[in-house]
Amino acid sequence: MALFGLANGIERLGKLIWVVDFRATNVRSPTDAELRKLGHKLPEIVNAVRAIDQKYSLDLRYPYPDDDMTSAVLDALAMFADASRGRYANFETISGATSPHDPVTYWWANVVEPILNKHFRGTAREVRAMRDAAIVEALIGEHSIVWHQDETGDTISDVAHGSYRSSENELAQKYGRLYTLKIVRWMSEVYTNLTKPMSGPDGDPALFGHYEIVSTFVAPDQYLRDRKRWPL
Fold first, then answer.
1. CB 198 within 8 A of CB 204
2. Which of the residues 34, 73, 177, 184 has the least number of beta carbons within 10 Å of its own beta carbon?
3. What are the E-state strand segments in 63-173?
4. How far out from the chain centre does Cα 157 lie?
5. DSSP symbol at 199
6. Strand, coil or helix: what is 59?
7. Rounded CA separation 52/15 (Å)
8. pTM of the predicted structure, to 2 decimals
């Protein structure tokens, strides 16, 4: 599941940034016990990175995206990363229980719906989606059987609804990717700005070339939105 990779990736990149700052401040690596104190909660890790960003007064092309969509993405990822809530929701379903924390439903309600309200509903894109749905319904609707459960658990039982939902999903994937990668981009630029000066011939050999691994995430919005395969 994409949420697993995203949650783990943001957590690990945040901890790498924290370790770099620790090494620069203490001239040694943190102990395992010291690193464990940072915990696993994404909001706290992101706040630690924000503090490091401010500590060094980094001049970033892409500063922290402090907006409602970023908060929604982090909240959804944090919910999923919490083993007692989102991460094992599917196991509860297999056992016959109904989980109140299904990660897909939560993502749709808290991330996708705001995206659709901002970028889809009431736009020319939605008009085209409704037109296309009507056309495909007229062409094959009476000759088709549709039975599909959407991300919220509701049933899609006609071609027009399925076509319209496909248009919603296409846009949701683009902008869900954009708003998530804005967080990754900011963290990648923080990491690059911290490690690049420290990894030269007279710098910290443990950090040599690390910034190259995340450099492709430091890209304009359109690139983050439209590119489907990561990393490069």
1. yes
2. 34
3. 148-149, 155-156
4. 30
5. S
6. coil
7. 11
8. 0.90
Rounded to an integer, what distance in angstroms lies between the CA atom of residue 116 and that of residue 172? 7
The C-alpha atoms of residue 125 and residue 119 are separated, in whole angstroms, by: 9
**Beta bridge mates, 156:** 148
**Sign of the dihedral defined by the CA atoms of residues 79, 71, 21, 62, in that order:** positive
Query: 216, 231 in Cβ contact below 8 A?
Result: yes
Residue 75 tokens, joined: 């909240």
Nearest-angstrom CA–CA distance, 103 and 24:
38
Q: Cα–Cα distance between 167 and 136 in angstroms, integer?
A: 13
Determine the distance from the C-alpha atom of residue 149 to the mean position of all C-alpha atoms in its chain, rounded to a whole number: 24
Contact indicator for 147, 162 with CB cutoff of 8 Å: no
The conformation of residue 83, written as its DSSP 8-state character, comes to: I
Are the C-beta atoms of residues 53 and 60 closer than 8 Å to each other? yes
Strand partners, 149: 155
Kindly report, residue by residue over 74-121, the tens digit of the pLDDT: 999 998 887 555 555 555 555 655 555 688 889 999 999 999 999 999
The amino acid at residue 197 is P
Segments of the chain scoring below 50 in pLDDT: none
The backbone region for 9, taken as left when phi is positive above 0, alpha when psi lies in -120 to 50, beta otherwise, is: alpha
Q: Which residues of 191-205 are buried (b: 16+ CB within 10 A; e: fewer)?
A: bbbbbbebbeeeebe
Helix (H, G, I), strand (E, B) or coil at 120: coil
Instruction: Compute the mean pLDDT over every residue in the chain, rounded to the nearest whole number.
Output: 90
CB-based contact 68:182 (threshold 8 Å): no
